[in-house]
Amino acid sequence: MHPDYQYSTSKLFKTYVDSHNKFLVILPPKTDTIYLSESFDLAQKNATELNCQYFVLGEFNRMGEVVIITISLYNTLDGKKVWTNLSKALTPDDIDPILEKLSASLGDPKSGTEGDIYNVTAYDSKELNKIGANKYLGLTIGGGYSFVSDIDKNFPAGIGITGSYDMRDLIFNMKAEMYFSDIKIYYINIEAMRPLSSAKNAAFISGAMGFGGVNKVIEPTNYFNSSVSEGGLFLFAGGGYLMNRNSNVSLKFAGNFYTPVFKVDGTIPMGVLFTTTLLFGR
Of all helices (H) and strands (E), which one includes residue 242? Predict the structure, then answer.
């Protein structure tokens, strides 16, 4: 790195860290040529002499067009690493937001890099960087419980198909599902999922609205079963867990509470559904 960039990068990181009022950064002295490259032992020794509780070491390593930035925080007393973070930059413009992000998370144990899907800062405004695709088709199997008390079998089970589009912060699904028992449920809906982290395996919350119908078996009369059907709007709310999100094949476990906004045989046939969906990238 050019000496001027080396100096200004260190000063910029110090400015960002100082602004958060968690740490006060003391930089090593600058020579007329370049910043001195301190070894681990020398950095620990200097931190001890300055009565600093921690010391920080950072590295910039270039591989092709990508620069890998690693910053680690160490305990001065015993030299143990207490925090580390790795980020990737594609252009020099990425360095400033990366340093700002690292300064805010410095020392925070929740700000690790395991399984992070945000690979390169320059791509934040683009589609999610994935091993394969971010469009999926999936097959769903599942079952649930209907809060309808006057039927014999209120544990419907069934199948469905899903089209999914992953937009990084939100995932949109178009689903068509049907479940069978003494109460039959069928619908299509549009669902929005909000992942709770950017990891490839992440919990999520979801909500959906759809259109469908309910068919309810009525107590037999004169030895013949009869039923009543109604249709209309459905509302859904739930959550679950998404596995292997950044691959061509992923798995989703979900639980949803559903309620039609219409009545069937005088009652609203609410219930819960638990599903497993296997998704294939296109």
Answer: strand 224-243
250 neighbors 242 (Cβ within 8 angstroms): yes
One domain, residues 157 and 236: yes
Same structural domain for residues 103 and 192? no
Assess if residue 178 is contained within a domain.
Answer: yes
Cβ–Cβ < 8 Å for 116, 139: no
pLDDT at 120: 42
Dump pLDDT digits (tens) for 244-269. Answer: 888 889 999 999 999 999 999 889 99
Residue 95, phi then psi, degrees to nearest 5: -65, -40
- Domain at 80, CATH number: 3.40.50.10070
Do 146 and 181 form a contact (C-beta atoms < 8 A)?
yes
Nearest residue to 26 (alpha-carbon basis) of 59, 4, 48, 2: 48
Pairing of strands 171-180, 183-195: antiparallel
Q: Are residue 104 and residue 141 in the same domain, yes or no?
A: no
The total number of structural domains in the chain stands at 2
The DSSP secondary structure of 145-175, one letter per residue, reads EE--SSSS----EEEEEEEEEE-SS-EEEEE
* pLDDT 10s digits, 208-257: 999 999 999 886 655 566 889 999 999 999 999 999 888 889 999 999 99
- Within 30-102, strands assigned E span 54-63, 66-75, 81-89
By residue range, what is the domain housing residue 99?
Answer: 3-123
Same domain, 148 and 274: yes
